[in-house]
What we know:
Helix 1 packs parallel to helix 2 (40-52), helix 1 crosses helix 9 and helix 3 packs parallel to helix 4. The protein has a single domain, classed as NAD(P)-binding Rossmann-like Domain (Rossmann fold), CATH 3.40.50.720. It has a 7-stranded parallel sheet with strand order 3-2-1-4-5-6-7, with helices on both faces. It is built from 9 helices and 7 strands. It has 251 residues and is an alpha/beta fold. It is globular and about 45 Å long. The structure holds NADP nicotinamide-adenine-dinucleotide phosphate. NADP nicotinamide-adenine-dinucleotide phosphate is lined by residues 11-12, 14-18, 35-39, 42, 63-65, 90-93, 114, 144, 146, 190, 192-193, 195-197, 200.
Amino acid sequence: MPTDQKVMLVTGGSRGIGRAVVELAIEQNYRLCINYAQAKREAESLLELAGKSGVEAIAVKADVSEKNQTDELFKKIDSRFGKLDVLVNNAGIVANASRLDAIDDDRLQKILGINISGAVYCAAAAVRRMSTASGGRGGSIVNVSSIAAQLGGPNEYIDYAMTKGALDSMTTGLAKEVASEGIRVNAVRPGLIYTDIHASGGAPDRVDKLAHLVPMQRGGTAREVAYAILWLASDEASYVTGSFLNVSGGR
Ligand code: NAP
């Protein structure tokens, strides 16, 4: 295995957009750490795919909202690959549609923990490994935000939208903080994408029901988001940092 092959960590890589990122990264010959929370079988199926393609990959169970589990996740990357080139901060959840004044504290703490704290833990651990100021070789971080950060999620999930707004602020600040240390930090903002996240928020038909609100009049695929993420992660985007790529059909 050539040592210049890049190593990518995809959080929440087992299903949906993260899975599409892993599949495309396998095609592009990355070495991979596929993080998941529950979906062991789905993660293992990606290991099989990687194996068939001659790509080195590991699957690591870790709840990104638990700092000790995130620390262990990065230690596994250290021991297996000895470096990290790309972090795709993708793990995220929504809850059932609700007005803000009906959101209970358990729900609020859970979504803040996964969507914000988890992304910060992972970005911080990645920066410590990538920064040229601490002996690293530079790298790229792509945060998976949402067009909801701009729309605000009224009557559905303001809590979710605000976590993505926080991710956007982190993207802007961290991009500036580490730009001179060889690390680029960017974000994609997907719109309505066909994944199971909508069913997990109690609305399996959400994409088709809301497609008429999209200028392109359709939902997007996880693969369409993955192309944008892989481009931002790549050397083709070498002068791009602190940028946001809306993958939302014009919404
Ligand atoms: P999904 O199909 O529900 O997949 C979510 C992924 O995140 C799964 O791999 C899941 O792991 C993982 N995950 C959940 N909680 C986790 C935790 N605590 N620790 C580690 N991994 C965890 O969702 P998706 O639609 O692909 O969403 C991926 C990202 O895109 C999210 O950040 C979401 O906010 C964002 N996004 C999605 C859309 C959309 O329309 N789909 C639009 C805008 C933004 P398990 O499989 O193990 O449960």
